[in-house]
Design brief:
This protein is mainly β and 442 residues long. 6% of the residues lie in helices and 46% in strands. The protein binds CU-O-CU linkage and copper (II) ion (2 copies). GO terms for molecular function: copper ion binding; oxidoreductase activity.
């Protein structure tokens, strides 16, 4: 529904039985009972109002990941929608460039299991600048949510730490601590799907919606000529110029907007989207079958959007955040947790106060692999381990994939709104185990 001021959506969060594995029913928790949830599309600068009704048996929180959203609508972890039919209206100004955003659950301590059960969906932002570009559109523009899950023999989702039958088995605690992995790869909710494509360019918007798994995406066979992926966009929008990659590492919550030219392959070729980080079934994500020749008037221009000049010299402050193991709780409740600067998350404590409209350099240090995400603020990656960024680091980001013992410098621009926002590890089990910190924009 649209009126003069805004586009309105209504979403019911509910349990539903769906067929994911052939012949079996899986109970999911989905937006409108679907996984992924319905894709929302917005125009830059036009208000989108989404009313979420929670009919699940647990509290929920909705966060628009990548959105520049006023704090009261950002989905702060304790700002819950009560179970049993309560509703909340989330108002998104979306005064930001065209980008692949996504919405997902963000409930304090329970984000991992709730997203695992299906509470995630795409929210695309479009604008005139993007629309004027001759990129592939319509049925040749495809958002792909990649996520791994584990299933019990009866088809139900298996989330080890919550399953009493599994909780006491050896290795389960470690599996939870390091992030929950599955042995089935789903793309848009289907296991290892196949898709018939024309010998033409396609725009694929990759989103890693996994709780903890990273992928190294590649095409198998690689195209006989040209790069496998022409990256046109990153987390927060289009790049100034396209960049070719043979492979793309994608950590939880990252997005890569790429064009793949299937006309580089002879008709009849089956092109696997492979995961070079995985073995066996986990080395395969999906398959594109090039089934027909087709007209194609799309192209990837050498200039996409105007570059916004930002430089390290603009930074008014430097800060350091160490994402690592630590201890939290008191007395006999002290236990190992994941922390930021040695401290577990506390809603009452802000670890940084930044001024609206300023730019800062943050050094982020990781003990083991952590994909670090900031709400509200987008950033550019300046360096990794004292050297330049990766080829796939360019553009405005909201999530940075950090390897073990890695140090990165990011240039963060705090535009948008004042208020308390979180940054956290997007390994959702790490997030739930307190690897989260507040920053206040004042
Ligand atoms: Cu996608 Cu705070 O999260
Ligand atoms: Cu976010
Ligand atoms: Cu982590």
């Amino acid at each position: 529904r649209s009126d003069g001021a805004a586009d309105h959506y209504e979403i019911t969060q509910r349990a539903a039985a769906v067929e994911i594995l052939p012949g079996l029913q899986t109970e999911i928790w989905g937006y409108d009972g679907r996984f992924p949830g319905p894709t929302i599309e917005s125009r830059r600068g036009r208000r989108t109002v989404v009313t979420h009704r929670n009919t699940l048996a647990v509290p929920t929180v909705v966060h628009l990941h990548g959105g520049k959203t006023p704090a009261e609508h950002d989905g702060y972890p304790t700002d819950v929608i009560r179970p049993g039919g309560a509703a909340k209206e989330y108002v998104y100004p979306l005064d930001q460039p065209a980008a692949t955003l996504w919405y997902h659950d963000h409930r304090m301590d329970f984000t991992g299991p709730q997203v695992y059960r299906g509470l995630a969906g795409f929210h695309l932002v479009r604008d005139d600048e993007e629309e004027a570009l001759p990129l592939p559109k319509g049925e040749r523009e495809i958002p792909l949510l990649i996520g791994d899950r584990a299933f019990a023999a009866d088809g139900s989702l298996r989330y080890p730490a919550l399953d009493p039958a599994l909780r006491d088995r050896p290795g389960v605690e470690e599996a939870y601590r390091d992030g929950v992995l599955g042995d089935v790869i789903l793309v848009n909710g289907a296991p290892w799907p196949r898709m018939a494509v024309s010998a033409a360019r396609y725009r694929l918007r990759f989103l890693n919606g996994s709780n903890a798994r990273r992928y190294r995406l590649a095409l198998d066979p690689p195209p006989p000529s040209g790069p496998a992926f022409v990256q046109i966009g990153s987390d927060a929008g289009l790049l100034p110029a396209p960049a070719g990659h043979a492979r793309i590492d994608i950590a939880p919550a990252e997005r890569f907007d790429v064009v793949v030219d299937f006309s580089a392959y002879p008709v009849g070729t089956k092109v696997r989207l492979a995961n070079e980080f995985g073995e066996g079934n986990l080395s395969h994500v999906m398959r594109f079958d090039v089934v027909r020749k087709a007209a194609d008037d799309s192209r990837v221009p050498s200039r996409l959007v105007a570059a916004e000049p930002v430089s390290r010299r603009d930074a008014v402050a430097n800060r350091k955040f160490l994402f690592g193991r630590g201890v939290g709780g008191h007395g006999e409740h002290r236990q190992a947790m994941w922390t930021v600067n040695g401290k577990p998350f506390d809603t009452r404590r802000a670890d940084a106060r930044v001024r609206l409209g300023t730019t800062e350099v943050w050094r982020i240090i990781a003990d083991v692999h952590h994909p670090v995400h900031l709400h509200l603020a987008h950033f550019q990656i300046l360096s990794r381990n004292g050297r330049g960024p990766r080829a796939t680091d360019r553009g405005w980001k909201d999530t940075i994939d950090l390897g073990g013992s890695e140090v990165a410098e990011i240039l963060v621009r705090f535009t948008g709104y004042r208020g308390r926002y979180v940054m956290h590890c997007h390994n959702l089990e790490h997030e739930d185990m307190m690897m989260m910190s507040n920053f206040d924009v004042v």
